[in-house]
Structures are given as structure tokens and as C-alpha cells.
Prior knowledge:
It is a multi-pass membrane protein. By secondary structure, the protein is mainly α. It has 18 helices and no strands. The protein has one domain: Up-down Bundle (Growth Hormone, Chain: A), CATH 1.20.1250. The chain has helices spanning 4-33, 38-47, 50-64, 71-88, 92-120, 126-151, 157-173, 185-192, 201-205, 210-238, 242-261, 263-270, 272-289, 296-324, 330-359, 363-388, 400-405, 407-419. Helix 4 runs antiparallel to helix 7 (157-173). The two termini are 37 Å apart.
Amino acid sequence: MSRAWLLRLVIAFSFAQGAVSMARPAVSYRALALGADERAVGVIAGVYALLPLFAAVPLGRRTDHGRCAPLLPVGVVLIAGGCAMSGLAGTLVAMAAWSGVMGLGHLCFVIGAQSIVARQSAPEDQDRNFGHFTIGASLGQLVGPIAAGALIDGQDMAGTSALALLVSAGVCALAVTSLWRIESLRTRTDSRTKEASRVPVHRILRTRGVPGGIFISLAVLSATDILTAYLPVVGEHRGIAPAVVGVLLSLRAGATVACRLVMTPLINWLGRTALITTTCLLAAVLCAGIALPVPVWALGAMLVVLGFCLGVGQPLSMTTVVQAAPAEARSTALALRLTGNRLGQVAAPASAGLIAGVAGTAAPFVMLGGLLFVAAGLGVRGGAERGSDGGADGGSDGGAGQGRARVPRLRRREKDHQRH
């Protein structure tokens, strides 16, 4: 089967994520120009995830029993509108509200796109396809901060940050040029004939592998999100120019792209469990290290290694959740994973704002180190659980153990079906 649909999806995601990655630091700089302190920046960053926190599961339910592709243009419209209106807003309250609209649009796009990848990928191709799909996010995160840093001038922060937000709206609109023939006819037909009953959310959350995958994704995304939102604040306190901060954020994103290009060889070499555990542990140390007053060149080197480590968690947590969840509730499981992400995006920046206000702007990165350390522990535990099910996470299985671990669940489903 041709994977041209995946290439078009990656291109569209690059534009959408590029717009968001350009807008997020621009929102922080514009908020600072309007008189916000560290706490207010944290609240605005948290509101970005607030609306998606309540919308993710209903959107996942709808996608499980319908088409995925219509969510993509809806997401583009909401992201572009949120970016543009954030640039025109003159108060912190209005900026927070439009930041929430931007977050809702990003959620719509991501749920639709991830569900398409899950449906149209064979089980043995999911690690590779999710890895390639997330390259779109990394490319956007690579270009977006550089573009924001190039446009924003410290001498006229209010005006230039508003310009950056308007430009990001235009960048997002370009995503619609690739949104054609992404969802196959076979996938549309399968979605109409799917079993109509809904798998309860508590059953999905109790499925082995799903909670761990959700928390690992939450920890990794929280690290990425706080880096994007708070590195500008750290830069302001340490005298680092916005353009340099943009380059630093893009170095992190570039390393993430490199990681995802070599995802399959890494899994074959180390195995999924060892790869997740090692990268989370190293990322925990590096996040805590950002709190140190190191030179800019050392900060850049740390962010490169950190970006490579953070590149592992998102695609592998997608595969883990998709393969562990019941087949008829995969979009809902992905939506629950995104709900966990958004919960982290609400709680982590808000907590970071409080910590920064009390202990200084570098303290939130120590908090991230602790979060990633817990994620590493869950990665080890998840591997042990798969091994106890007869699906040892060997160095070359590439996730095959997950398929073996799924056999008992399939048998339980058959028994449940016979009872009804």
C-alpha cells in the first residue's frame, strides 16, 4: 500500500505544528510586554490545554465510530484563528482565551491525524509510521521558534510579538494544501461498519500498558511544553536574546527529528523498554541541569541531547496505547492519552509558574526532572509486565512482545462476546 497519504499528513502536520510552535513563545513574549509576570505566563500556557482537557474523549468517541479526516481542517481553522486573535488581543484575559482556542484546534488536528495513522498502519508498521508522523511535529518545532525569534525584537516586544502571531496564523492556513486523499476509502467503510457499542473509559484505563503509556507521554510532552514556554523567561533573566532562544529551541527540535529518523534501528538495537527507560532517565538529568547557570554553548549542547531523548517517548507511547487498547476503542484510547497530555499541559505550566514565582525561573526544570524520572520507572515496570505475559521485550523484537501480550486479551474478548 502506498504511503503517500502519510507524507501528505506529515507535511500538513509540519505547517500546523510550526504555527503552534511559533505562536507559543510569541504568546509568552507578548504577555510579558503586556505586563505579565512568571505566574501569569504559566496560567496562559495552562489555558492552552484547558479546553482540550474536556473535549478529547468526546472527540475520540466520535472518531472511533466515524471518519477522522474532517477533524483536520477544523483544527487548522481553530489554530489559525487562535493565533491571529492572540496577536490582536490587548489584554491578558483575552490572550488566555484565544490561547485556549488554539489548543482546541491543535487537539482536533492531532486526534484526527493519529487515528488515521492507527487505522491505516499494519501492526508491524506502527512504530515506524508513528515515528514518521511525529517528524511533522518536530519539523514544526524546529522552524517555528526560529521564525518567532527572527520576528520578535526586544526593543518593540509588543508589536513584533503580535506580528509573529499573525504570521503563524498564515503558516497554519498552508496546512490545508496537503489535506486531500489522506483517509482511504477502505478506512471510511470500516469506520461505518464498526461495532456501535462503546468500550467504557474505565476499562480502557485498566488495560495493561495504557496507563504507563499515558504517563510517559504526559511527562515527555510536559517537558517539551515547559521548555517552549519558559526558556524565553529564563533567557530574559540570563540576558539571552530572543533570537538566540529561538535557535536553542530549534536545536532541541532538530535533535528530535534526528531521533525519529532512526527510531526503528534504535528499537531493534535496544528494545522498546530499554529505549524508553534510558532516554527518560537521561532527559531527567538534563532537564534538572538546565537550572544551572551554564554558558549558552553548554545550554545548547544539553538541549541537543535532551531533544534526542524526548523524541522517543511520543511515538512509542502512541504505539503502546494503540496496541494495548481494544480494537474498537483505539481512537478513544489515543484521546485519553491526549487528555493526559493536556492535563500535564494544564498542571505543569501552572505548577511551574508557582515554583518559578517562589524559587526562581530555573526551578520548574528540576520539577520536570522528577517527572521524567517517574516515567523511566514506569517504562521499566511496563517492560517487566510484558515479560510476565510471555512477551519479553528483547533487543530485536521491535515491539513484537506487545503482540504476544495481546493474545490473552483477545481470548477474554471472545469469551465476553460468547456470554452476550
